[in-house]
Every structure is written in C-alpha cells, then in structure tokens.
Write a structure and sequence with these properties.
The chain has a domain of about 45 residues. The protein is extended, with a radius of gyration of 16 Å. By secondary structure, it is mostly helical.
Length: about 70
C-alpha cells in the first residue's frame, strides 16, 4: 500500500516526481552505495534521458548563508 499525503501539486507534477524518484531508485539498485558522486550523476542523467524527462545539469544558483552570498 502506498501512503498518499494530500498535496497542492498538480497530477502532472506528481507523476513527474514519481518518475524522477523511480530513475534515482533504479540507479541506486544498479550501482549500490560507495561510488564517487560523478558516477551517480551520470547514471541519473542517463535514466532521466531514457525516460524522456527533460533536465538541466550543473545550474548556477545563488546561495546565501547567514546573509552572505556563498
């Protein structure tokens, strides 16, 4: 049984989230823990592309910590 928590997200967004998590789970099951981050990064990108899920890599985002831009 799947636990469903009420959400304000659209059904399309919920499906996209489920598909994305599914990609990550497939990578984890196939590669298991212990590899360097880039291996998982590339594998998840492969899975997302295989599933036809559009994505962008290595986006620049502004991060503030204690009021300072880091």
């Amino acid at each position: 049984m799947t636990l469903r928590i009420p959400t304000a997200l659209s059904a399309d967004v919920e499906r996209l989230i489920q598909r994305t998590i599914g990609c990550c789970i497939r990578v984890h099951r196939e590669l298991a823990p212990g590899l360097i981050e880039i291996a998982y990064h590339r594998a998840v990108c492969y899975e997302l592309a295989e599933q036809g899920i559009p994505f962008e890599q290595e986006k620049t985002v502004a991060i503030r910590y204690h009021g300072k831009h880091i």
